[in-house]
Specification:
Blueprint (H helix, E strand, L loop, with lengths): L11 E4 L3 H12 L4 E4 L7 H5 L3 E2 L3 H7 L2 E4 L4 H8 L11 E4 L5 H12 L4 E8 L11 E5 L2 H12 L4 E4 L6 H28 L5 H28 L9 H17 L5 H18 L8 H5 L8
Parallel strand pairs: 1-2, 1-4, 2-3, 4-5, 5-6, 7-8
Antiparallel strand pairs: 6-7
Helix pairs in contact: 7-8, 9-10
Bound molecules: NADP nicotinamide-adenine-dinucleotide phosphate.
NADP nicotinamide-adenine-dinucleotide phosphate (NAP) binds next to α1 and α4.
Length: about 300
């Protein structure tokens, strides 16, 4: 078995051929990696095998086939269902790259599980949908030992042109993933709220979307400055105060309610800002809201 870092030479095993795992295996094959595949439902491997992949009959066969074992299944329960029955000795000297989504604690537990079997563990997060895998659109973030990341970077580049190494702590990838999906849902929900509002005036979502994109770009440009404020713990209200934001939030809630549009999302945002103002931060800048996100929700009043 070789792994000399020449693109396309290193054998790779892929466990899990759902939408994402199948795309990963296909990209590795396209890049010329000898690719062994396993899936609980074997038929999902058929087209990959026709394209040159080797079918493993069991997870153990897949683990034995390559120094780099990539796993991408629904969740950590599914991962352990696949890997627990494999002879622990089979993992010796292997690197398990886990692209299954989960929490930072699950990633760190699985790193310890792998270490107990003599395997290195890299935790990866995919920031793309399956059709983006193997293209310039895909980003994969990875944490774990730097030497392992470097060793397997050529195979990873077959999956995503944009690779980011996040450091030794295997839990960090999951935290980044959570942060980015949280951002994604906040943007999508804000956009949907706007589409619902404009829809009441007969404006199609398509017409509103270009304006929404400009708004997202404007807010994106604020982030570096606000990040500096968060890191310094100082929040000057020199662009717009939280109280001014709260007044706009009240308009959004009022407009939504009067038009019969769901107002829960803006009302939630306003309730967080109201709490920050009640704590004396109304004259500071928006980034002072970090304090509301740093602690659990206030107990519900009874
Ligand atoms: P999916 O299409 O639903 O595939 C799930 C995979 O997990 C299948 O291979 C399935 O096997 C396997 N599986 C589930 N339960 C199992 C069990 N108990 N034992 C063995 N195998 C089991 O999901 P996906 O979209 O590929 O997502 C896989 C992972 O990638 C998830 O953690 C997801 O969060 C992450 N991800 C996905 C995307 C995306 O756009 N799809 C993007 C980023 C990250 P069967 O085929 O036999 O059911």
């Amino acid at each position: 078995m070789t792994n000399d870092n020449r693109p396309g030479d290193a054998p790779v095993a892929v466990l899990g051929l759902g939408l994402m795992g199948h795309a990963l295996a296909a990209a590795l094959l396209r890049a010329g990696h000898p690719t062994t595949v396993f899936n609980r439902t074997p038929a999902k491997a058929d087209d990959l095998v026709a394209a040159g992949a080797r079918r493993a009959a069991t997870p153990a066969e897949a683990v034995a086939a390559a120094p780099l074992v990539i796993a991408c299944v629904t969740d950590y329960d599914a991962l352990r269902t696949l890997l627990d029955p494999v002879d622990p000795a089979a993992f010796g000297g292997r690197t398990l790259l886990n692209l299954t989504s989960g929490t930072s604690a699950q990633a760190r537990d699985t790193a310890a599980w792998a270490a107990g079997r003599g395997a290195a563990y890299l935790d990866g997060g995919i920031m793309a949908n399956p059709s983006g895998i193997g293209t310039a659109e895909a980003t994969i973030v990875v944490s774990g030992a730097r030497a392992e990341f470097d060793r397997h970077a050529p195979a990873l580049r077959a999956l995503a042109a944009d690779l980011a190494y996040l450091g030794d702590d295997q839990g960090r990838t999951a935290l980044y993933e959570m942060a980015v999906v949280g951002l994604m849902w906040s943007i999508l929900n804000g956009w949907l709220q706007g589409a619902a509002l404009l829809g009441t005036a007969g404006v199609p979502a398509d017409a509103y979307t270009a304006v929404a994109g400009k708004g997202i770009a404007t807010v994106t440009a604020w982030l570096p400055g606000y990040a500096k404020q968060i890191d310094a713990g100082v929040f000057p209200g020199d662009d717009a105060t939280l109280d001014i934001h709260r007044a706009s939030m009240a308009h959004l809630v009022q407009e939504s309610e009067s038009l019969g549009v769901n107002a829960e999302f803006p009302a939630l945002i306003k309730s967080l800002a109201d709490r920050a103002a009640a704590a004396g931060h109304g004259g500071e800048g928006y980034a002072v809201m970090i304090e509301e996100f740093r602690r659990p929700a206030a107990p519900t009043q009874t």
